[in-house]
Design goal:
This is Protein LURP-one-related 15. Belongs to the LOR family. The protein is an all-beta fold and 120 residues long. It has one domain: LURP1-related (Porin, Beta Barrel), CATH 2.40.160. Helices cover 0% and strands 48% of the residues. A hairpin with a 4-residue loop joins β3 and β4.
């Protein structure tokens, strides 16, 4: 049984589609695509299978080829109460140090995320 993901996010003031999401929940290795209002994919998110830290890769457009990798993200640890991600840009192949950190804030009304730039 397939479980397709297909929804759009719209500007609530104008009811214009901002972007949409398409994919298949049980086939995340094929990628989930974010597309613009015209339906053209601008990034593909792909979950890596068999990783300890729930790694996701993000590719340019409709691709899942390594040459189109933009960045990857993984949980900073396997057990977390609040989401903390380490983000590695495509040219950071060693992944000794992450390029960015993204963490869930402590707000109870919503789930905002904060981007933390690391010192050079």
């Amino acid at each position: 049984m397939d479980s397709p993901i297909d929804f759009s996010l719209a500007d609530v003031n104008r009811n214009n589609i901002v972007f949409g999401v398409q994919g298949d929940f049980f086939k995340l290795h094929d990628g989930v695509r974010l597309h613009d209002a015209a339906g053209d994919p601008f990034v593909t998110l792909r979950k890596k299978i068999m990783t300890a830290h729930s790694r996701w890769q993000v590719f340019r457009g409709n691709s899942i080829e390594s040459k189109d990798l933009l960045f990857s993200a993984r949980k900073s640890s396997m057990l977390q109460v609040k989401t903390k991600l380490h983000v590695f840009l495509a040219n950071n192949t060693a992944e000794d140090v992450c390029d960015f950190k993204v963490k869930e804030s402590s707000s109870h009304d919503s789930v905002p995320f904060m981007l933390e730039t690391l010192p050079q």
